[in-house]
Amino acid sequence: MGSYRLADGRALDIGPGGEGRLRWRTLDGRTGALSPAGDGTWTSTLGWTGRVDGHRVVIDDCGRGGIQFDGIAGERVALVEVDTRFEGSGGTRLAGRLTLPPGKGVVPLVVLIHGAEHDSALQRYSLQREFASAGIGVFAYDKRGTGASGGDYTQDYLTLATDAIHAAREARRLAGARAGRTGYQGGSQGGWVAPLAARIAPVDFVIVSFGLAVSPLDEDREAIAGDMARGGFGPEAMAGAMEIADATARLIESDFSEGFVQLEAVKAKYRDAPWYPAVRGNFTGYLLANDAEVIRRDAPGLVRSIPARYDPMPVLETLDVPQLWLFGSEDRDAPPGETLRRLAALQRAGQPIVTVVFPGAEHGMYEFEVAADGERLSTRQPEGYFQAMADFIRGRPLKPHYGAATLSQVPVIPSP
């Protein structure tokens, strides 16, 4: 695993894939899963579809002897990696890693803020190598309770924001004289955490990828409304679906101490309705698919300490840090509609916000195809997604278009 520079100038990232596999990525968003074919040769399948795409990778001596991608030679980029342990909120010991491009020059720094997933960022986040190969310093760290970090897993945004502030300080300490403009990139749940961290301890920029400016409960309701709209169901179905949303919200808000009777009641009331199978939402689909015993056992750990009615607007209304918000138009987990309306109002009020919507992309910023059973199979990330973030991190003027996406922005003055 590592970053490689191909003979044609392209950057190629090789990172972990599924069991016994690797995954390749290029900065234009293309990706594939690699399976060993013997003699250092790996064959590729498109995105996460499992369908052979014709790409072939040869890795010589675990990459030390170079690499070939479709017959084009490449050499490993000598990125500088410094592993560290630092104290987060309340003294919790967190595991982090600073990754810098080669050389001794000043570079911008971006701190990657975890989403709600339980995976190790240090093991799974390819952006730590991709940004570094593009000349940007990166600090990644395992969220508390995940990977090599200590503490208990939580979704308390203030605790996580404080951890992010400590991470930014550690990044600048390790980078020393190489540290330039510094900011955050947060995906999904990180979109609530990054602005809060920047409001407490200002940085030079904030990037939010597929995050929201509404509460977690409003996220679920907006997602359910989208489910009904995509299914072509009318007002009666919408009213029933919102009744279900009310029941699942009671469970979440009570930390699963009450609401089970109400949930079973609405399930019994509507389970034979034609629209019922289409109710997915964000967390509601999970609660509908499992019985009370499973929910009591597993669900609290999935959403521990989540501030269900957290309103991000007071933070965003007073946040003067330049912000880049990126969305997928087909995000059914975190629909961007209301968030875009709120951000547009902030833009009109003079807040330094840029929004970018990539058509045809879903949560995680992935384009997809729809399988025969209706499930989405991710194929790649949109062209221009990485480049938009990289330009913003560097403080460069943004282009009017990135791939198929169009920017909506007010003038942003880069921080010194």
Secondary structure: elements and pairs:
Layout: E1 2-6, E2 11-16, E3 22-26, E4 31-38, E5 41-46, E6 52-59, E7 67-69, E8 72-76, E9 80-87, E10 93-100, E11 107-113, H1 121-124, H2 127-133, E12 137-141, H3 157-175, E13 179-187, H4 190-200, E14 205-209, H5 216-230, H6 235-253, H7 260-270, H8 284-289, H9 292-302, H10 313-317, E15 323-328, H11 337-348, E16 353-358, E17 361-362, E18 366-370, E19 376-380, H12 385-394, E20 401-402, E21 405-409
Parallel strand pairs: 11-12, 11-13, 13-14, 14-15, 15-16
Antiparallel strand pairs: 1-2, 1-8, 2-3, 3-4, 4-5, 5-6, 6-7, 7-8, 9-10, 10-12, 16-21, 17-18, 18-19, 20-21
Helix pairs in contact: 3-4, 5-6, 6-7
Please provide a written account of the structure.
The structure is a single chain. The chain contains 12 helices and 21 strands. By secondary structure, the protein is α+β, with helices and mostly antiparallel strands. The strands form 3 sheets. It has a 10-stranded mixed β-sheet, sandwiched between helices. The protein has an 8-stranded antiparallel beta barrel with strand order 1-2-3-4-5-6-7-8. Strands 17-18-19 form a 3-stranded antiparallel β-sheet, with no helix packed on it. The longest helix has 19 residues. It is globular, with a radius of gyration of 22 Å. The two termini are 35 Å apart.
